[in-house]
Amino acid sequence: MRLFDLHCDTLTEAMNAGVELKENKMQLSFDRGSKYAPWVQTMAVFIPDRFRGQVAWDYFVQSEAFLTAQLKKNPGVKRCRTAADLQNVQDTNGTGVVLAVEGGAVLMGDRNKVSALAECGVRMMTLTWNGANEIGGGCHEPGGLTDFGREVLPLMQQYHIVPDISHACTQLFWDVCEAYDGPLMATHSNAWPVCNHVRNLRDDQFREIVRRGGIVGLNLFPVFLSGQRDASLEDLYRHIAHFRDLGGDKAIAMGTDFDGAPMPSCLPEISALERLWEYLLARNMDENFVRGLFYDHAAAFFARLGG
After folding, report:
1. Is 113 helix (H, G, I), strand (E, B) or coil?
2. Per the structure, how many domains does the chain have?
3. pTM for this structure?
């Protein structure tokens, strides 16, 4: 089984807890994830809403340095900055890490920080977290795209950093669609008609992401799957089936949110993901689609991006 996961918060959680990425008691670790070959893991630097200005940027720098140190300790895990890097991981059945940022406050309102992120290998940026920032409104603090946000989007496209609209409010989503003509991601969001949580995508939003050649990563947080404190594999199946009904067969991937939220009892940590694979096959989902969900769709998306 191959795995390409579009979102986890393990990087900053491990840094703050003072534990290693290779072996820990968190929901994700290098040793447990390496059972999947190849395995590509997007690791986000989560910028809390309480961090703004220089504090937000300094936190990113600290987090990126922690990742660099961890990769030196684990030379078998490769940082993936380009499509060629990802292809190499795939060809060698290796393990790769893609760096992301969760929260556009990292830019501290400075457009020059976009190129600085690119130099560090950042390939995607969640524009907001739950609150508003210099780019626009979050799902718990609505607002549209700011003038600064309109300046930043073409720079992100120039430097091959994809806008991630998970956590965006509805107004920000559509403002971004109006101001930006490239592909969009929702790295860890589910289907609103299946579970009507503000963090989930409406059908018209999902269709727009598909139309642009974008991708959506399925989030395992039970509240986003079932609206309850726990969720089942069948709950996750319902979100997948709904997105497929909307024509999203090749636009769905995994976006687990490991170490960013409580996980369902059926999928408590990364080594349990095989259960979902087996369940989807047992529910008569085509094996080619299941392979795409777990790896191929995300890999194809990054291959199209180049960079």
Report:
1. helix
2. 1
3. 0.97
